[in-house]
Amino acid sequence: LSVARTFGVVPWRSLVMITHDVADVFLEAAKLGVYTKKKTWSNSMFAGFAITFFISRLLFFPVMILNCAIIEGAYVVGFNWPVHCLYSGFLIVLQILHILL
Fold first, then answer.
1. pTM above 0.90?
2. What are phi and psi for residue 4, nearest 5 degrees?
3. Residue 38, Ramachandran bin (φ over 0: left; ψ between -120 and 50: alpha; else beta)
4. How many CA atoms lie within 13 A of 83 on its CB side?
5. Which among 70, 99, 98 has a CA at the least distance from the CA of 86?
6. How far, rounded to the nearest angstrom, does the alpha carbon of residue 19 sit from its chain's CA centroid?
7. pLDDT at 62
């Protein structure tokens, strides 16, 4: 996050944070259902979390954010800009972690 702020790529950082925070609402609601012993609520919220996680991190993130940051961003800032390569590398590692975990 500090790399994004330092080198002025805050819109990418904001999109990454929004993409990750969308699914957290359902996860917290599912945890609330577990704590209050409401199994139906908990299961439905966890299903919402799983669907939102899949859509936001495995579909939206690579198609919209990685494409914008790596492919289109390279044309804007140039292919040899070191910060672009570093930040693109971080985004690729994040996508690999989404797939593996």
1. no
2. -65, -45
3. beta
4. 14
5. 70
6. 4
7. 86
Q: What is the pLDDT of residues 43-83, one digit of tens each?
A: 999 999 999 999 998 898 888 888 887 887 777 766 667 77
Residues contacting residue 9 through CB under 8 Å, at least 6 positions apart? 3, 69, 83, 87
Q: CA 90, CA 76: separation in Å to the nearest integer? A: 19
Q: Distance between CA 88 and CA 41 in Å, rounded? A: 39
**DSSP states along 20-79:** HHHHHHHHHHHHHHHHTT-HHHHHHHHHHHHHHHIIIIIIIIIIIIIIIIIIIHHHHH-T
DSSP 4: H
> Pick the residue with more confidence: 64 or 26?
26
Q: CA-CA-CA-CA torsion for 50, 56, 59, 60, nearest 10 degrees?
A: 170
